[in-house]
Design brief:
The protein has 139 residues and is mainly alpha-helical. The protein folds into 2 domains: 1-52, no CATH class; 57-139, no CATH class. Helix content is 37%, strand content 9%. It is built from 6 helices and 3 strands, in the order H-H-H-E-H-H-E-H-E. The chain has helices at residues 2-7, 10-19, 38-51, 79-82, 85-94, 113-120; strands at residues 57-60, 103-106, 125-128. Strands 1-2-3 form a 3-stranded parallel beta sheet, covered by helices on one side. Helix 6 (113-120) links the parallel strand 2 (103-106) and strand 3. It is elongated, with a radius of gyration of 21 Å.
């Protein structure tokens, strides 16, 4: 950010932001902090998907990055709400690659018997780590 701060004055940046819009300001949802970017996000997702075709082995892992900035749309998610999130993430991200005899690798955050059974039913092989004390893990 330091290089950017040296390049443009704060007031000039605010002026640009005032006139540069990704959506019509009259159609904005004031309750949605990200209402200005969904079309851009969709466009980028499509472009990234076109340029990145994974091979037979696909690894899914949660990534944690240190972030010191301010976000107005932070969301508190207690652990009980995370139940099922791993299944959703792997299934949603992996859906375009199902039924093609690919191999999905993931860690204990994503590993559930339901997910592994459902992926196997779609000709997708899974490899996941588990903790010994994991509850509700049946084979």
């Amino acid at each position: 950010m330091e290089g950017f701060k040296k390049t443009i004055l704060k007031q000039h940046f605010k002026t640009l932001g005032k006139y540069l819009h990704l959506v019509d300001p009259r159609d904005e949802d004031t309750n949605d902090a990200l209402c200005k970017v969904p079309q851009l996000v969709t466009l980028l997702e499509d472009k990234f998907a076109d340029d990145n075709i994974p091979g037979k082995n696909i690894s899914v892992d949660e990534g944690l990055l240190k972030f010191n900035g301010r976000l107005s749309f932070k969301e508190y998610m207690p652990m009980f709400q995370l139940k099922g999130l791993g299944y959703y993430v792997v299934w949603t991200l992996g859906e375009p690659y199902l039924d093609d005899h690919r191999h999905f690798f993931f860690d204990n955050f994503f590993t559930t018997t339901d997910l592994m059974r459902d992926l196997e039913s779609r000709d997708t092989y899974t490899f996941g780590t588990v903790r010994i004390n994991r509850r509700n893990l049946t084979w």
